[in-house]
Specification:
Blueprint lengths: L20 H8 L4 H5 L2 H9 L6 H18 L5 H20 L4
Helix pairs in contact: 1-4, 3-4, 4-5
Length: 101
């Protein structure tokens, strides 16, 4: 998928509540957390702290988890999938409400 800036992200771009890993991973890559934060370290800090006060932070967390699990070379466990689906739903809520900061 191509990058989708926060300002043009639409609810139909976002995977549904029961989405599986391939769809979540593809959506995660519509955002470049490394580029946004201008470093791996800053992106990792936000993701590892599980920040989620802004749409950018939520998308950073999702992006970083995709990169993390790609590095592991396996699909996320069920606990992580629950976290990822929660992130996606929180992203959807922000987009639907127009809170795209």
């Amino acid at each position: 998928m191509d990058a989708i800036p926060n300002g043009t992200l639409k609810s139909e771009d976002i995977p549904g509540p029961g989405a599986e890993w391939p769809d979540l991973a593809a959506f995660a890559l519509t955002f470049d957390g490394y580029g946004v934060w201008e470093s791996f370290e800053r992106c990792a800090e936000i993701a590892n702290e599980r920040r989620g006060e802004t749409l950018t932070e939520l998308r950073t967390c999702l992006f970083f988890e995709q990169r993390r699990w790609r590095h592991f070379g396996e699909d996320p466990d069920e606990e992580t999938m629950d976290y990822l689906r929660n992130l996606v739903e929180r992203i959807r809520e922000r987009v639907v409400s127009g809170n795209v900061v």
